[in-house]
Amino acid sequence: MNAPDVKALGKVAVLMGGKSAEREVSLMSGAGVLKALQSRGVDAHAFDPAERELVELKRKGFQRCFIALHGRFGEDGTVQGALELLGIPYTGSGVMASAISIDKVMTKRVWMAEGIPTPQYRLLRRGAYQREEVAKLPDELGLPLIVKPAREGSSIGVAKVQSASDIQAAVDAAAALDADVLCEQFVSGDEVTCPILGTGADARALPVIRIVAPEGNYDYQNKYFTDDTKYLVPCGLPEGEEAAIQELVVKAYRVLGCRGWGRIDVMIDGKTRKPSLLEINTSPGMTGHSLVPMSARASGISYEDLCLQLLLSAALDHEPGTAKA
């Protein structure tokens, strides 16, 4: 990419921390992004919305925001809406796309309406379901099955349930984190993820990463705090299979109205080799273990250049066409 005039970007806030269950991960992501942008000469500063009011961004003269927040109050459209009102361009998806994408059930509904494959599911609303409904899940979805909060990330609250007798405990644990609990058919096979950069017709997929976690358990600990999980890029899938997944995730990204960047998690059925899309992250991790930087490196984009490219794509919803893919 041609060297941009970083001074023209003005004063930049890297939003990190926040109030979600993913605060710890967000602080790690934000620290990496801040260092990268500063190394490229950007006038970048840390800003934690859990400790400072967002209106300070306007008062302190910030002209752009890099959103390194994860989960609720950062990836769900709320911060995006505040920045729209303040008139400060920001990285990543806008209000509607962020709000839909954080909600795994709403994401599935949109994908299913567009013919994009995703595992079958049941939505349980806390306080509105009975134990007899939970007992029906193995017949409806099979075993094992996946139980997760509808609006959390980083695998927080996710459980793979092997036995019918364990479902209620998993549902109760997920319900402690979210009013809505998603129960999902388990797809046995290869677990992969694919980042997307850009907006609209210019959106493109980066290399697919295959994830090989200890005992197939890609949980919060194995995501961020161990080196036991293997990330394969090149992914080792047949060339046609990788290309098909890349095409599918770009379509899934576009139908949600996402912009800037994102990452979609996919399971490939071990028998049929058919992919099923699990969820999308519209503010993916940027830590030392994170997958978007890993995939970007495989395509020749350094961490620093990736951060700068994302910052250049900062935009507002009400200014169509301002995002640079």
TrEMBL record:
It catalyses: 2 D-alanine + ATP = D-alanyl-D-alanine + ADP + phosphate + H(+). InterPro entries: ATP-grasp, ATP_grasp_subdomain_1, D-Ala_lig_Van_CS, D_ala_D_ala, Dala_Dala_lig_C, Dala_Dala_lig_N, PreATP-grasp_dom_sf. Pathway: Cell wall biogenesis; peptidoglycan biosynthesis. It is found in: Cytoplasm. Its cofactor is Mn(2+); Mg(2+). Its EC number is 6.3.2.4. Residues 108-312 form the ATP-grasp domain. Keywords: ATP-binding, Cell shape, Cell wall biogenesis/degradation, Cytoplasm, Ligase, Nucleotide-binding, Peptidoglycan synthesis. It comes from the Bacteria. GO terms for molecular function: ligase activity. PANTHER family: D-ALANINE--D-ALANINE LIGASE (PTHR23132), D-ALANINE--D-ALANINE LIGASE B (PTHR23132:SF23). Belongs to the D-alanine--D-alanine ligase family. Cell wall formation. This is D-alanine--D-alanine ligase.
